[in-house]
Every structure is written in structure tokens, then in C-alpha cells.
Amino acid sequence: MDKLSINLLPEDILEEERKQIKIPWLNSVTIGALLLTVGVTVSVFIFSVAQNRAFARLNDQVKEARDKVASFRETESLVLVLKSRLNKISSLSPHESVYTQSYNLITSLVTSEIEVTGFSVDKSGKILLGVSFQDPSRLQPFFANLTDPARNEGKIKSVRIDGLSKGRTGNIKMDLIIFFSQQGGVN
Amino acid sequence: MDKLIGEFTKSEFYKRYKGLLLPSISLAICASLIGFVIVPQVRQFFETRGQKAEAEQTYKTLSEKVAYLQGIDKEVFADYINIALTAIPAKKDLPNALSQILYLITSNKLQVESLAIAGSGGDLESFSVKLDLKGDTLSFKNFINDLPKVPRIVNINALDLTVDKKVNQIQVSTGLAVYYQPLPEDIGKVDQPLPVVSEKEIEVLNLFREKGIAIPSLDGATSTASGTNTNRSDPFE
Fold this sequence. Notes:
The complex is a heterodimer of chains A (187) and B (237).
Chain A (H helix, E strand, L loop, with lengths): L10 H9 L6 H46 L1 H20 L5 H12 L5 E7 L4 E8 L5 H9 L8 E11 L5 E9 L7
Antiparallel strand pairs in A: 1-2, 2-4, 3-4
Chain B lengths: L1 H9 L1 H6 L3 H50 L3 H14 L6 H14 L3 E9 L6 E10 L1 H10 L7 E11 L4 E11 L19 H16 L5 H6 L12
Antiparallel strand pairs in B: 1-2, 2-4, 3-4
Helix pairs in contact in B: 4-7
């Protein structure tokens, strides 16, 4: 049997309720959102406090380590001075200079029939070589040495004859321009 | 005030929208919490995380530095510095450099025709010794090959050679660059990582020690290079 319901509220109140905007789920959703936001806020806050404490602890450790390093300042200065000098030593000393290398190479390539009259080299490796000889046929082995990468360790990039003259005595003088490379390597 | 509230609660607007009051207040609180607490805290979190990573790196560097410094024997390092100072002194130290070069020249039976000192003109702290030498080819070859044996670092920076066939002698005009490096005035910040001296570098120093034994020099560098420690632990003293 259906229950009989009688609304005893006055008509003006009923009218007020009819006018009122109601979204049934809105209250529960917003309260839920509020609770969630409060929860997140509390978590973030707790996490932040914990993080700050850890950071403060770490800063204390860093300060302690700094003090310790400061107590070794004299030893540190020794290491730094030594290291800066070692860096300079390694940048200056390990390799033979282009001058020494080129001189050693050219003197090893000059054959016994050829006499060196002059040798000059600049830091780029450009060699001015003066030679003299009697018999032009003896020149062949010398040129072979200069131009064969297998004999000159691939360190001679080019050879150019700059001057050639013959004296009264039959002595032939020749000036050569040789480009020397420290890298070398036989192709 | 009460009157104002009373009038508001009786107003049509209030009666119509009072159902939305609680959700509105809730949303306002949410927005405030997000805007004034969560966003700044999250931003702060990332900032602190960056700073923490930096501090951790600093701590690691400092700990490694302490460990390395604790293991250093000051006397041994002072000895190494003295050897390094023989190779590259803090000052020009002309007499010592010249004595070593002249020792090498005379021991290779070359004659000095002229000798001049010039400034470097380059970026490096160095000076140049211009030499005119006379001798035979083999002596000169030995001389330039022996140059790396000089305790002080000396490099050839010019070479011009002519051969006088009549007397079978060569005339050499050469330049030698001699290096020096003033001691640093500042050793930097505590947090800076410390460069480590490697075994290979110690070997290089030992080579210089041997050079010092082979070629004498004028002053205390001789005794240092030959192994006698000057006991100067602090190069800044």
C-alpha cells in the first residue's frame, strides 16, 4: 500500500526550495577535492620538512669536509704547484723538436757522395738544404732517399730544387727546399 | 554587521544560490592551498633537489680530496717540487741555464763563437739563448741529441748550419728556448677538485732527477736533483 505523504511546510518555503539551484553530486565532489588537496598539502609539507632536514645535514657534512681540507692547505698547495709544473713540463719536453728530428733525418738520408754545405730549418718544418757533388749520376740514390716514404719515414712531404750551379772546378751546387712533417707515416 | 548578514541571508540571491555555498568555499580553499602551499613547495622541492645534488657533488669532491691529501707524504712531494723547479724554475735563473748549456757544448767538443740572450717574444715564460757554434758534424749531432738530457727544459727554436769544407768544420747558428714559470700566488678555492699526480708523471720527475745527476748545475738545484732534499715543504715560504 502506498504511503500517504503530506508536506506540511508553508507554501513560501516550498517556493524558496523550488527556486534554489541544486546539483546533487557537487557537495560530495568538492568535499572530496578539498580532502584530497588537504592531504596533498600535508604530504608536501612533511616531505619538504624532511628534505630540508636532510639538506641541512648534508650542508653540515660539507662544512666539516671543508674544514678538514682547510687543515691540509699546505699539502694542497704542494700538489697544485707540482701539478702545474708537471703540466708545463709535459707540454714542453716529451717530443724531439722539429729541428732535431729534421736534422737527424736529413743527415741520415745524405749519401756519402753528397756533401752538405748548408742546412737551415724553421719551426714549420721548411728545410733549406745546400748540397754539393762532383758526379751528377750520384744524385740518384740521394733523391731516392728524399722522395721514398719508406726511406724517409714518410716525414718528407715535398722536395723542390731551388737552385743549381756548376763551378769552374766542375763542382755542382744545389739548393733544395724540403718540407718536413713531424707526423710522418708510410702510406 | 549582523544586520548586513541578516539582510543578505534574506535576499533572493542567497536563497537561490545557498546550495552552491559549500562547494564554492571548498573550491576556494582548494585553490588557495594549491596556489599558496603546494605550488611553492613543489617549486622549492626542485630547487632544493638541485642544491642538494650540488652539495652532494661538493661533499664527494671534498671527501676524495681529504682522502688524497691524507695519503700524501709532504717530504716526498717537496722533493718532487724541487725536481720540477730544476726543470722549470720559478725565475729566469740565467747563470744556471747557461752553465748547463755550456757544459753540454764543451762536453761535445764544440766551440762557442758568440752567445746572446734575448727575450721570448712568445706567450710562454721563456728566454732565448742565441748561440754561434763551431765544430764537427758529429759533435753537433751529439749536442742536439743530448739537449733533452739537460735538467732544465731547453728546446731548439732556430737552426742554421753551414759547412766549411776547407777546414772540415760546421758553423752553426742556433737558438735555444729556456723556460721558467713563476710560482702561483693563489691556490684556488677549497671546493675545487684536486688534480692527481699520476705514476707516469712521477716517472717523468725521476727522469729529471737522473738528468740532474748527469749534468751538474751551479746552485742548490744540483743537490736537489741528485736527491738531496732541501726540506722546503712549502714553496710559498
